[in-house]
Each structure stands twice: as C-alpha cells, then as structure tokens.
Design brief:
This protein is an all-beta fold. It is 0% helix and 49% strand. Strands 1, 5, 8, 9, 10, 11, 12 and 13 form an eight-stranded mixed β-sheet that branches. β14 (184-187) and β15 form a beta hairpin. It is elongated, with a radius of gyration of 22 Å.
Length: 317
Amino acid sequence: MESTGADVGGCFDDGHNFGGHDALHLVGVASSTKPGAKWCYERSIPDPSPGGSPPRGVTARAAVVELWGMPIEKEVANGEPAELLPNPKWIRGLVDGAVVIDSRDVLGVWDHRHYPSWYFPTSDVSAELRPTGETDSTPGVGIATIHDFVVGDRIIRGAARVHRDSAILELRDRVKVDFAAIDRWLEEDVEVFSEPKNPYVRVDVLPSSRLVTVGHDGVVVADTRRPTIVYETGVNPRYYIPPMDVRVDLMRPAARTTSCPYKGFSAYWSVLVGDEELLESAWSYPTPLPEARLIAGMLSFYTNRFLVEVDGVRITT
C-alpha cells in the first residue's frame, strides 16, 4: 500500500491562512493590516525568474513579521542558516497505530514561514528510511537526501528528508518527516493537528458580555450578550456566539472542514437570507481541543460577508 506524504501548511480556522492577510504577502509593504504588527525587511531582490529560483549568488529576500516584539512569521534567506529552536517536548508519531517516531531530543527549525518544523535524530525513528536517490534543498537548511518512509507494507513516498552531512552541525543525522505522512502526532500525551505549533502564538478564549450582532440585508442573523471571544496572536479577534442566540433556522451545514493546531477541526455553515445563500460564511468547532473548549458548538461569522457589530461598532476585519 502506498501513500504520498506532503507538508500541510497554514492554520485555517476562519478561511484565513495563519497570518495570511494580503499585506503579509506583499514585498516592500512597510506596515501590516494588524495593529501592532510590522514587517522588518532585511534585504530585497527582484522577483525570481519564471523558473522559481533567485539568480545564482544573489541573496533572496528575508523577512520577519513581528507582533508586539514577538516573531510570529519568518522567511529564511538563501545563504543564511535557519534559526534553530530546541523543543523540550516529548514528541511521538504513530502510523497504523504503531509508534514510529519517539523523541525527547526534538529540534525546531524555522524552515517554514509560519512555524518551526520538527527535526528528529534518525535513531529516534523506528520506521525504515529507504533512500530514493533524490535530493532536496531548503533555504537556510541545505541539501537533504529524500527517503521513503516505510512501515511494514506501507510505503509513504518521499516523506522523509535526512541531513547526514549538513553544514549545520546541529542538523547532522537528523530527519524531517512530512507532517501529513504520520497518522497521529503527540506532544506528551496530547494529539497535535494540522501542523507543529508556533511557540510564539498564544490563544486566549474569553467569555464576554459585549453586545455582538450579525446581520445581512436587514435580517438579524445573531444577537447576543454572551459571546466568547478568541484572541490569537497574529489574527484578528473572532466572536463566537451561542447557537440559542443565532437564527439556526437560517443555517445550512456545508461540506467544508478545516483544521487548526490550537482549536481543532471546524465545520462550516451556509446561511440562507431570503433568496440569497451565503455559502460557507460561518463556522464552528463542534468538539474543539481542550484549550478552546469554551467555544464548543458556538458559531462565528465572516465579517466581510455580514454586518457584524460589537458594542455598536462595525467590525470589518
């Protein structure tokens, strides 16, 4: 049996990639749409050629997004080593119910824009790492040999990148395994979904007595004095409303579902207002992760699809 491993990027809780507002993807933009956030451009070059790579010998642009002094996104520059972040957590990976990665010596490597990837000593991986004969180069990390990840008769093609002779001493004999290649990841005894967590991200889930109203085309869809507000680093506040304060007769379940390492798996809803159906315009977390349990079953609405007001002030972000 074969399957293909692939990196899963982004935290999709409300249709936005983590930190994914448009201003965060524009080269040369000096400020962000987020209060307190800023781009810090260290250097810049023209956009790469159609082949996708910068000209040889030219340093690619590097950027760090800072939010109140904390780096929440990073873009590694070619020719510069990626930041290494020791991870003290016990990390395990399971495939077909068996533990195939078991490590207390995890190294976080900022080779991804939104979070540090996990790199494990090869000795902490019990699955067979079968060389494919191919190599791969990651900015800031260097060249890795690509391996299939073999567990019994299951072959996960190209899911492991091994750094046997890395120029970065700390990465030698370490392996990065594609997050999606593993059936279950555990931090200590808690399952991790979607992607490794960003250590600089904090999520506060706070019950409130603010007045939150949601409307469209003159129809009140929700009206509450008991919202729960989610404050997540780098993301605008999200207002979750108890279903008893929502016109649930207007709600239609949608097929879309997404995942977030901080809140869990979401379900999406379309909203029928008159003859107009606002597709996938609201979402909820039926069974959120423990740290977000207070929003279980509550509904949140896109502020760009509805008229959302908090204490009489319109929210547009």
